[in-house]
TrEMBL record, chains A, C:
UniProt keyword Membrane, yes or no: no
Protein name: 2-oxoisovalerate dehydrogenase subunit beta
InterPro entries assigned: THDP-binding, Transketo_C/PFOR_II, Transketolase-like_Pyr-bd, Transketolase_C
This enzyme's EC code(s): 1.2.4.4
Entry function: The branched-chain alpha-keto dehydrogenase complex catalyzes the overall conversion of alpha-keto acids to acyl-CoA and CO(2). It contains multiple copies of three enzymatic components: branched-chain alpha-keto acid decarboxylase (E1), lipoamide acyltransferase (E2) and lipoamide dehydrogenase (E3).
UniProt domain Transketolase-like pyrimidine-binding: residue ranges: 4-180
Required cofactor(s): thiamine diphosphate
Highest taxon above the source species: Bacteria
Molecular-function annotations in GO: branched-chain 2-oxo acid dehydrogenase activity
Taxonomic lineage: Bacteria, Pseudomonadati, Pseudomonadota, Gammaproteobacteria, Oceanospirillales
Keywords: Oxidoreductase, Thiamine pyrophosphate
GO BP of this protein: branched-chain amino acid catabolic process; response to nutrient
TrEMBL record, chains B, D:
Cofactor: thiamine diphosphate
Coiled-coil portions: none
Keyword Oxidoreductase: yes
Protein name per its UniProtKB record: 2-oxoisovalerate dehydrogenase subunit alpha
Source organism: Halomonas korlensis
Role description: The branched-chain alpha-keto dehydrogenase complex catalyzes the overall conversion of alpha-keto acids to acyl-CoA and CO(2). It contains multiple copies of three enzymatic components: branched-chain alpha-keto acid decarboxylase (E1), lipoamide acyltransferase (E2) and lipoamide dehydrogenase (E3).
Matches recorded under Gene3D superfamilies: 3.40.50.970
Biased amino acid composition, Basic and acidic residues: 392-404
Keywords: Oxidoreductase, Thiamine pyrophosphate
């Protein structure tokens, strides 16, 4: 099996999707001949022509408006937003339009073909505007699906599934793993399920839930914890909405403890939703308060980024606190 | 870029270098302007247009009255703008896509949306294609290539660019026409849409109904320029301004625009100068922001009257037919309204379907919980209870007293 | 003391603020001579002139962009978004700009003078786009304050405080109470504190938390519950961010039970944040799972609005379930 | 509205009816065009401008080199656009507000931002006005009336309209100039900003640097029109296109624009035609999307060279001075860089201050928790630990092994 980094896996997924179906189009700022500022769309214009892979003018609300129309028409647009931090000008098109298109028309029209790709997350010295993790905004929006892969294998399988999913999907790519994360990725077409979490490690004492780049951080914390004799069960949510409540609940019923981690600020982050749901469904089984290890309630900083981030040490400490409760 | 000449003194252009003329064919008395040539429009086609205009007018009058009587929660009229909307629609292929703002029921009428279909939407009953989820006037028809209305303004404009781009790739010779008001044209989405259409050479017609107002805001507080038309220069896009109350001019202009779009992949901007004769909506009272005199002046430019005179002159219509037609339409509206009002609401399940292609487990749980709750308090949720199992009847246990 | 409805109280607050300080400006769509589609800005243009109260072109991103600039300049803009459902085109200006203005400049510049008013909420047969409660989107955005009044008295005092607050405030007005809610409102200037919840009813068995129009619904539920002998403590959060954790926690430590209600969809709604925080801070005191009574995870419907809404009966049932746990 | 004429045939305007000339004064050899008149610009004023241009060029070259050496995380050059940015700034009152995109460090240089000030921001140290919170090049100065840069494109454009509206009300005769790229001009915020400025007659100058590219996207894929200038017609706004590498033309045009803005409350659009000679940023390599030949052609139009020749011709500058000046600036840059690099980071508290005017209780709790944590693992957070109480030193208990 070839080894790919995450960008290659994404590029490969796009290539497969475009080769298979003429209706798949890739576009966004600098996506065309240049292949995107991260090169996720490299060579696609060469291969599939300018009408199927192209630069757009610099206007995110237009990119998504255009993509909504294309999807309604029956095409399968894969629109790139250059950084997740710049998705907000398109917020109205996503939240009021994409998310409600099928519902409001009674299923006369839908934009299920739409996939929105955007690099998200910190750890690259990007400051306020090249580091954000905006998944919680979209998670509060019925009608959208939100998917985040943790490694190249997941990225390819989940992206192919997203493109072919009958609903619009926002696909957030952990950009600090773009080149840093490599792994074996099958050359051929495959899909991984949307809406299903994955238990990446089984354990008995505490359940750790995360997604995307945070999975790697969790793994480092788990190494520390296991050395202290704590047995951790680790779950990669993979899909933020609709999230796989049952898998998380099942695990917490077993371990009695839950820690959730994300880079986004604490208040109103998606960990809150998981905590609120789990405390309800596992009330009698919880042995300690559900812990959230997240970014601070501030804009994303630069010089003190390391201090800001929910790193393995903070998770490790929170694991210990939970066990010691 | 065609930048050619140099200047050596700092002379500003102010936009007064050119002016945008208005394309007109038909005078208010029903005769053509000197030198004007009517577009080819046979008797049947002309009557189809006029009939849609009258039907729209009648529907609007009746439904606004129904709203006033409390039978309907909300309504919006097309009154005064029928020629703009229907003239444009008639110049299209019936399979061309239409993305409207909300005041374009005339387009649906022209394409054959039945009164029943209108009424089912207006009353949000079980037959509403939109399953009773949106406010009245949010029509949509897949069959008639009319995208379901969405209230956020201008969002449909870049969508039209995208849809038309897809049509171009599909290569079936269709285009998209998107309607919007001069107010909505201030939104950022307008700029995005026109620019992208010009860059990507998309077969889309941007049809601006400049009716002088955005709710209470007069166009003079909406933009400083001479209307919306000059914006086309900023995108290098073909543009024409047309008298929006002149059915022949609107028809001819849109026909020509469609040729540019479909045959040359040239997007076009049409600005139709018209006037909203009625209130913005049933929630609005225009006496607070404009004069009766102004309204009267525009009432004299009524597009229906103008077309009727032209038809009469050609012997294609008569006062007799007008009377009959109006009466028949009024009767039909009333009958269909009664039918629609009586129909049950959409089923309770419609609350959670279509959020996604398939109902998610979480939504199914929410629906189940809701059903249990409604079974407990059926009289508190008459619409929801109605659609639950027919054998459920209001219980009368201790818990129920809150349901009154 | 005169009786006012909520619109009159808001109009009165704006009048006082404009009379007191030349730098206060009110603008938005139809806000000028017409006085706003709900007439919240009636007569302000007459009184203070067209340069201080005016119509804007129809462009929410422009309204807030313009307002951000004005606030940075030192003016005190009160910008109206005609319906909260139409705030999303301005999402980028609010989330990436308003919220981060002070932080990113190291306090060289700030837009603290800015207040954004928007009618929110359902119950008026408004369907998807005249009914939304978007507070949770903004609650996940450090740098913003979000305030929601429950009645005319609160509306006036909180709006005056918001206008004068040193931070930007989004002021969501429960439009179904605009005319329906009336009460005594002092003619003179007064402020109510931002960031402080109010215990509107003391009780022993369960704590009920809400805000805005939902407070009235809670009251109806409490009437039913009290008849069944349940003693309810009711808290109006009033400020969503920064929210008054201590008051809620203190109450739950006493009652041992918590129910939170809002109209917005369940997933990722602000109730999740409250539940997540309270389960952590009151873990050993909770006698039953924290309950959330909210809108469904769907766009806001029309015909079945009554079925969708978290009404007094649903709250009453949830109270009973909590007590019976 | 000035709609006057009628037409009776459906003739479209296509924007080819007019063309936008380019205002030029100075030829590349440093002499004026025939018939061109240089703006009034004395020796000192001219030297101040040129000095800022050279200092900007030197800073850019050195800092890009520093970035390549890994001393700096990120950098962006103004190279090639110095005349556009500095010429415009020089034509303003020093107390006029400037809202820049990110490539306008020249404006700050002209107004007297010191190398130390630049460096402190670039290294995000304790003296950075922005407290180390934003990426390099996100400068701001309240003293110099230069709004702190924000990365989201075009957001500053409507902000400029609002700021200038406030200036108009304040009545102190100031205006705002907002810089942006031709790429950013595609954003919805651009449309909002220009329209609102025209409607509300705001003293704002919209200064578009049309440098041909938005990262890799050439302007031909950004818009179909002849540049950005014709958009002004859509707002009835004064507009001028200027050779952006011609310091005298930029200066004269901006002076005239400022008069329109401040004396007549007329917003103005200036489109400066220029070229980004360097990469988009330190993360970019332009060889992937444009030819060396194209770059070379523009290098010959270097705005510094052109101005230098003009200065030399007038005896206001010499090659000797040039050499000295460059050397001195290079030395200064290196020295200040060393100083700035050595300075400690901003204190840990700066993570939570300025989110609100006052630190909220919740943020204080988060900070306290963080401090406790950092005290536990000081070696894992060298910057944070450095600013905690000086008596804290790395502990060495059992828990610490994860900190390595
Ligand atoms: C994004 C958005 N902002 C505000 C509104 C509220 N609104 C509904 S109609 C309207 C005026 C629209 O005017 P115009 O576009 O000229 O169309 P007309 O009503 O004149 O046909 C406004 C402000 C909305 N629906 N969507
Ligand atoms: C809203 C937003 N979208 C995308 C970006 C990413 N981005 C940064 S610079 C840039 C190109 C800008 O081009 P232009 O406006 O022409 O300015 P130039 O770099 O040429 O000076 C892009 C796409 C951003 N910063 N903000
Ligand atoms: Mg209008
Ligand atoms: Mg550029």
């Amino acid at each position: 099996m070839p080894t790919m980094n995450m960008l290659q896996a994404i590029n490969n997924a796009l290539d497969i999707a475009m080769a298979e179906d003429d209706k798949v189009l890739c576009f966004g700022e600098d996506v065309g001949s240049f292949g995107g500022v991260f090169r996720a769309t490299s060579h696609l214009q060469e291969k599939y022509g300018r009408s199927r892979c192209f630069n757009t003018p610099l206007v995110e609300q237009g990119i998504i408006g255009f993509a909504n129309g294309l999807a309604a028409q029956g095409s399968v647009p894969v629109a790139e937003i250059q950084f997740a931090d710049y998705i907000y000008p398109a917020f109205d098109q996503i939240v009021n339009e994409t998310a409600k298109f099928r519902y409001r028309s009674g299923d006369l029209f839908n934009v299920g073909g739409l996939t929105i790709r955007a690099p998200y997350g910190g750890g690259i010295a990007g400051g306020h505007y090249h580091s954000q993790s905006p998944e919680a905004y979209f998670a509060h929006t019925p009608g959208l699906k939100v998917v985040v892969p943790r490694d190249p294998y997941q990225a390819k399988g989940l992206l192919l599934a997203s493109i072919r999913d009958a609903d619009p999907v926002i696909f957030f790519e952990p950009k600090r793993l773009y080149r840093a994360s490599t792994g074996e990725v099958p050359e051929e077409d495959y899909q991984l399920p949307i809406g299903e979490a994955e238990v990446t490690r089984e354990g008995a004492d505490i359940t750790l839930v995360g997604w995307g780049a945070q999975m790697e951080v969790i793994e480092r914390a788990v190494e520390l914890a296991e050395k202290e004799g704590v047995s951790c069960e680790v779950i990669d949510l993979r899909t933020i909405v609709p999230w796989d409540e049952d898998s998380v609940v099942e695990s917490v019923l077993k371990t009695g403890r839950l820690l959730i981690t994300h880079e986004a600020p604490l208040t109103g982050g998606f960990a809150a939703e998981i905590a609120a749901t789990v405390q309800e469904r596992c009330f009698l089984y919880l042995e300690s308060p559900i812990a959230r290890v997240t970014g601070l309630d501030t804009p994303f900083p630069l010089t003190l980024e390391k201090e800001y981030l929910p790193d393995h040490l903070k998770i490790f400490e929170a694991i210990k606190a939970s066990l010691a409760f | 870029m065609t930048t050619t000449t140099d200047i050596h003194s700092p002379d500003f252009l102010a936009g007064d270098e050119f002016s945008i003329p208005t394309f007109r064919l038909l005078q208010q008395d029903g005769t053509l302007f000197d030198g004007a040539v009517a577009p080819e429009l046979g008797r049947d086609a002309a009557r189809r247009i006029y009939h849609a205009m009258v039907a729209t007018r009648v529907l609007d009058e009746r439904m606004m009255a129904a709203q006033r009587q409390g039978r309907l929660s909300f309504y919006m009229q097309c009154t005064g703008e029928e020629a703009a909307v229907i003239g444009a629609t008639a110049a299209l292929d019936d399979a061309d896509m239409i993305m409207a703002q909300y005041r374009e029921q005339g387009a649906l009428m022209y394409r054959g949306f039945s009164f029943d279909e209108f009424m089912n939407q207006l009353f949000g009953n079980e037959l509403d294609y939109g399953k009773g989820r949106q406010m009245p006037i949010h029509y949509g028809s897949r069959k008639l290539h009319y995208l379901t209305i969405s209230s956020p303004l201008a969002t449909q404009i870049p969508q039209a660019t995208g849809f038309a781009y897809g049509q171009k790739l599909a290569g079936e010779g269709q285009c998209t026409t998107v309607f919007f008001g001069e107010g909505a044209a201030s939104e950022g989405d307008f700029h995005a849409a026109l620019n992208m259409a010009a860059v990507h050479q998309v077969p889309v017609i941007f049809f601006c109904r400049n009716n002088g107002y955005a709710i209470s805001t007069p166009s003079i507080e909406q933009f400083a320029a001479d209307g919306v038309a000059p914006r086309a220069f900023g995108y290098r896009m073909h543009v024409i301004r047309v008298d929006g109350n002149d059915i022949l001019a609107v028809y001819a202009a849109t026909q020509a625009a469609r040729r540019l779009a479909v045959e040359h992949n040239q997007p076009v901007l049409i600005e139709a100068m018209t006037y909203r004769l009625a209130a913005h909506s049933s929630s609005d009272d225009p006496s607070g922001y404009r004069s009766k005199k102004e309204e009267e002046a525009w009432r004299e430019k009524d597009p229906l009257l103008r077309m009727r005179r032209w038809l009469n002159d050609r012997g294609w219509w008569s006062d007799e037919e007008e009377r009959e037609c109006q009466e028949r339409l009024r009767r039909e509206v009333l009958e269909t309204m009664k039918r629609a009002q009586k129909r049950p609401p959409p089923p309770l399940d419609s609350l959670v379907t279509d959020v996604y292609a398939d109902v998610t487990p979480a939504l199914q749980r929410q629906l189940d919980t809701l059903k249990t709750h409604i079974r407990r308090y059926p009289e508190a949720y008459p619409k929801g209870a109605m659609s639950l199992d027919p054998d459920v009847s209001p219980r009368d246990d201790a818990d129920d007293k809150g349901g009154a």
